[in-house]
Amino acid sequence: MPTGLYVHIPFCLRKCTYCDFNSIVAGEPLRHAYLQAVLSELARYRGHRVDTVYVGGGTPTTYDATALAELLAAIGAALDVAPGAEVTLEANPGTVALPGLQTLRAAGFGRLSLGVQSFRDEELRLLGRTHTAAEAAAAVQNARDAGFGNVSVDLIRGLPGQSLRDWLSSVERAIAVGPEHISAYGLSLEEGTPLTEQVRSGRLPAPEGSEDPDWVRRTVEVLGGGGYARYEISNYCRAGRESRHNLNYWHNGEYIGIGAGAWSYLEGERYRNVADPAQYTSRALEGTELVCERERLCTQEALGETIMLGLRTVAGLDMAGLSRRFGVDVAERYCGTIGQLVAAGMLVADGERLRPTPEGMLWQNAVALRFLA
Question: Residue 269: which H helix or E strand, with range?
Fold first, then answer.
């Protein structure tokens, strides 16, 4: 199976109101040292083969384009990056301009993932974003002018006070700017974030549409009409433009995580680096242990997780391939569960594939729990 590389950049210009990701606002000394720490950790994996590279955050583009180009060159020098690898960079629209994007494209970044979140200025202000809707559209055009032929846009639905009409207007604006890929996530109110506190205190209305089946159905319909096929619960693309890096996660493939709080999964073991960026930096530069948490999955746990993740995708599971991978007859082991879910209209058995129905996609968590129990 392929192996993915994820490099975490934990820095932002400011913290968004909904965000509980491992990200901070930091000064130049830590930011400079952090990149050196990342290079030090990369050396620990020297020679590993990777098929996808994803530099995410945080906001990687809080660094200038030259620094990110040097980071990508260091990745190529340390690891065996497969020819034709998908190489993705996350960016916020307010942190990229045409000259920097040209530098990034020339360096070898081939896919740009823009954290737009909304094409409505009032919603962007609510979320604490640093860009406007016009700047988001301009970022897509600048990416095109810089030579990026693979652009993704992220959107969040179900914001406090957002109507279905408001949400679909953002979806339609995203279609109009013409990216190859659109991620449409439901808002999750995370503990300790300003947005959650505002909702709890009554200063903002409770979100209504993040998991509403009607909102999801209309999203699928509108994006489908715009030429974007759904291939995973929250992800849509033009033909052949699926995120290969994320598909590797959904196939429960192996991956290397570099940076503060990054997870890796290699040879059946999953492990996580220390999350605090300053602590991570000092440990990496000192050459001491970075991992703070480890777990080794037994065959049953790994199989259950692989089924759960695979049923997030429209293509579903290759049952014969899954049986070969884990050395068990998967269809026989889960015969009763599969039969019940097929009868309930949640799954469809199509030859060697087990796929979720559109209704099954709506209730994926409940479906997945049947295989994890």
Answer: strand 269-273
